[in-house]
Amino acid sequence: MATTALTGFSMMSLLSLGYLSWDLMSPNQVENEPVQTFGDASPVPQPPHIIFILTDDQGFNDIGYHSSDIRTPALDKLAADGVKLENYYIQPICTPSRSQFITGRYQIHTGLQHSIIRPRQPNCLPFDHVTLPQRLQQLGYSTHMVGKWHLGFYKKECLPTRRGFDTYFGSLTGSVNYYTYNSCDGPGLCGFDLHEGETVAWDQKGKYSTHLYTQRVRKILATHDPQSQPLFIFLSFQAVHTPLQSPREYIYPYRELGNVARRKYAAMVSTVDEAVRNITYALRKYGYYQNSVVIFSTDNGGQPLSGGSNWPLRGRKGTYWEGGVRGLGFVHSPLLRKKRRVSKALVHITDWYPTLVGLAGGNESLTEGVDGYNVWETISEGKESPRLEILHNIDPLYNHARSGSLQKGYGIWNTAVQASIRAGDWKLLTGDPGYGDWTPPQMLPGFPSSWWNLERHTEPRKSVWLFNISGDPYERFDLSEQRPDVVKELLARLVYYNRTAVPVRYPSEDPRADPHLNGGAWVPWVGDEEEYSWDSVYQKKKNTDWKKKLKLSKSRSFFRRLNTRIMSNRI
C-alpha cells in the first residue's frame, strides 16, 4: 500500500462527512431482512461478492442526484442507501482510468501516462504488474469481465483472459457501434470488435451493447453458486461513450430536451440505469445480495460536445480541470456500517485495488508497491481517509506550453510540461491542462465550432495554476501568484514523483493490425514470441512544417463543422 509521506507541508484533515436522512428502504431489500456487517458476532462465511460497474464518459452532472434533466431512479436509490463519494477522483480519459483500477498504480509507474492505447499500437498493460483480478484469483475468487477493455490486445498475452479474468465478453478497442460492433481507427480502417473469451463473437451482432452486457452479467449470476465461491465481476459499460445510440423507446421520455445530443445522451444514461436495476435484482434473486459490495464509478469526465455535462465543474473529458478528473462514484452494500450518507473523504481510482484485495481477505503484502490505499474503513465506517494527495499525472509528451519554463517553475520544475497534483486542499496544474471553460448543460450544438476554443477565464500565456479545491471546487480563483510558497511545495512533489516514473510506452502504429488482414476483426496480430523494444518510443517528434499544420487545422475545422451538422439532425 502507498505510504508516501508529505514532508514540510501542513495539511488540513480531508474528512468532512455529511448525512442524508432517508426513510426509504433499499430497492433491493425486503422489510425486516437481517443485514450482516463485518465485525458481527456471527462472521461472514466467505469474502463478499464484488460487482464493480464502470461507465464511460458519464459526466459529474449526468446522474439524477446531481442533475435536473436526467432521470436515474435506480442509481439514485442505490446511492442514497449506500455511501456517495463526493471527493472521488479518476483520470481524464479511458485507458489511464482502467489501468489504474486494474493495477492500483499511477500511470507514471506503468508507462501509460500519455493518451490512450490506440487499436493499431503494439502496446498493452505491462506484464510485470500483478492485476487486481489475478490477486482475487489467488484469494479464491471466480473472476469475470464484461464490456470495454481498452488496455491493449496486440498479442494474446494482453487479453483479459490472460490478465486474471476467468471469462471475458466485450470489446477490446475504445469505441464501437452499439449494434454492429464496428470499430474504426481511421478512414477504411474498420473491423468487428466483440469477443467471447479469445474468439470473435460474430453471432451477437445486432444486439444493443448495454442490454447484451447486462444479460451476460445476469447469466453469470444465475449459473454461479454464491455459497461455494466468492465472485468478482468487472462490468465495464461502453455507455455512454459516443456514438450516441440507444433504442428509440428510451429517447421518447426526453423529447422535451431541445439539445439533440443531450437528448440522445440522456437516453443512453437511462439504459445504464435500467441495467443496474436489473443486475441488483439478479443479485437478490440468486442469493448474492446480503454478502455483496456494489461499486459504481465513471472512468472520466463528460464530453459536452457529445451531450455530457460536468456542470458546475470546470473543463471536460481529456482535461485535468475538475470536470475531467472528478468522478461520479458510490458504494452500495449491506456490509456497510454507516449507510445513507455522503462522504467527502479523498478517494482515488487506484484505491480500489488495495481496498478490494483487503475485502477479499488479502494482507498488505499483496498490495506492496501500489499507489492506492485501502479506504474500506473510510467508506464503511466514516473514518478519515489515509489518502492525503493524488498525482493526477505527469505527461512529458503532451504539447508543451509555450509560456512554460524552468524559470517560471522557480528552478524546480519546467512548467511547460503538462502535470497536475492534488495535496490536501490544494491543486496545482502546469503546462496545458486542456480546455478550461465552464460549460452549462443544454448548450445547443448549432453554434460556430470556433466558440469551443474561447477560453473566457484562462490566460493564454499562463503555465501554472493553483486552487484551493476545498473552498473553490469550481476552480475560479487562481492563487498561484498569492501563494508561491504552496506552488513551490507542490512543484517539489512533482519532481519527487517524476523521479519514480518509467519511460512512456507509446509506440508507432503497426500496419499488421489492419482488420482487413485479420479476417475483418480487431484481434491480436503479433505472436507471443515477438518482443518489442520500448527504449525509444517516448521520443517526441517535432513538426516544424507550418504548411502541414495549417492543412491539418483546416481539416479539423471541416470535421468539427460536419460533426455539428450531423448532431443537429432531429430524430
Automatic annotation (TrEMBL):
InterPro entries: Alkaline_phosphatase_core_sf, ARSB, Sulfatase_CS, Sulfatase_N
Co-factor(s): Ca(2+)
Domain of life: Eukaryota
Protein family (similarity comment): Belongs to the sulfatase family.
Pfam family membership, one: Sulfatase
The UniProt record lists the keyword Glycoprotein: yes
Full protein name: Arylsulfatase I
Gene Ontology MF annotations: metal ion binding; sulfuric ester hydrolase activity
Alphabetized CDD domains for the sequence: 4-S
Keywords assigned by UniProt, alphabetized: Calcium, Glycoprotein, Hydrolase, Metal-binding, Signal
Residues spanning the signal sequence: 1-18
Sulfatase N-terminal domain sequence ranges: 48-361
Keyword Ribonucleoprotein among record annotations: no
